[in-house]
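Sharing a chain and its predicted structure for anyone who wants a worked example. Both blocks are below, sequence first, C-alpha cells second.
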Amino acid sequence: MSTGSTKRDYYEVLGVSRGADDAEIKKAFRRLARELHPDVNGHPEAEAQFKEAAEAYEVLSDADRRATYDRYGHEGLRSAGGAPNFDQFGSINDLFEAFFGGGGGGGLGGFGSMFGGGRAGGPAQGGDISATAQITLAEAARGTQATVSYDAVAVCEHCRGNGAEPGTPIETCQRCSGAGQVRTVARTPFGQVVRAAVCDSCHGEGKVPRQPCQPCRGRGRRVSRETVTVDVPAGIAGGQRIRVSGRGHAGEHGGSPGDLYVLVDVAEDPRFLRDGDDLVTAVDVSAPIAALGVTVTVATIDGETELEIPPGTQPHETLTLRGAGMPSLRSRRHGDLRVVVNVVVPRRLNREQRALMEQLAASLGPENLNSDEGVLRKLRRAFGGSAG
C-alpha cells in the first residue's frame, strides 16, 4: 500500500468518479473485495491492494472525512487525525472480518457468504458464480448447448480439504489455543469496535496441520478452472439466466456448494430485430413493382420463404408471416415474422426510363392516387405508430 505523498487518489483506487454516491462507492468496494479475497486471489500483492481499497472506502464512505479529503487531500486527513490505519491487523483475513464479519452480516450485507463464510466450525454453503454464454439468434430459436469456463473455489484434491500433507498430523492452533476465534480491534467511522473474529491461522477450525498441503498452502481449498456445458432452451432471450445447481464455489465444513448462473447473451442478427417472440425484418421493393404486386423471397429464422406483395402496397406497410418468429419459452406457440415493405423510389433514371415514367405519371388520375387514410394514420404508419 502506498504511503506518504505516493498514495494513490482514493477515487482512482475504487474506480469511481468524484461525484459518486454512497451506493456506487459501496458497490465498487465490494467488487474489489471479491477480486482480492484470499480464497480467490493468491497474488502476493493482493493483501496490499485490499488494504489500499479498504482505506479508500473508509474515507469516502464517511461524509466528514470525505469532505476533508476532497478539499485538502491526504495531507489534510493526516493533519485532522482522520487518516485510516490498518497496521493493527495481523493479516488480510483480519481485515475481511473487520469489514464483513464471519457470518456475512457485516456492514456490506453478506460478503462472507460469497466464499462460504459462516459461523466458525459450522457448515457454510459455497457462494454462487456468474458466467456468460454467447449464442446466435438462430441458436436461441432452436435451442442449443453452450460451454462456459470459469474459476471456482474447490476442495483441494491433494489433501481432500483438511489442509495437511497426506500422512502428516493436525495439531491444536497456537494462535487461538483451539478456540477458532481471536479478538481484534477495528477502527471504523463510528469509532473503535472490538469483535471476535475467525482465527486467520486455523480459519476457525481450532486446529492446524503440522505440514501444510503444498498445492493449497494449507487452506484445504484452491481455485480451479471449471468447464460446464449447459442446455439452452429454445426461445431464450438475451439477459436471461440459466441456473446450474451445485456448480458454484465449494462449501466449507461440509456445507453444500453454491450454484452457477449462466447469463445468456444473444448476438444481434443483421437480418432481424426481435420484439418479444416476434421477429421484424424489411424487404426493398421498387415503387413500380409495389404498384403492380410481386412475389419476393424473404429471410426467416429457419431459411428463406416466398412472400406475396399485393398490388398497390404502400411504403412501410407490414405483412405478417404467422408462426415464423421465435418459439415461446412458456408455451408451444411461436411468434410471427413481421415484414416491413420498404418502397424504393427509383433514382438516376436514363432518358428512356424518364420518358416511360413521364408517360406513366401523365396517365395517372385521382382514382390511382387517392388514399382512404387520413393524415394522422399515414404518419403513424410511417413512424411505426408513434405519431399522434
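Comments welcome. The CA atoms of residues 77 and 314 lie 71 Å apart.
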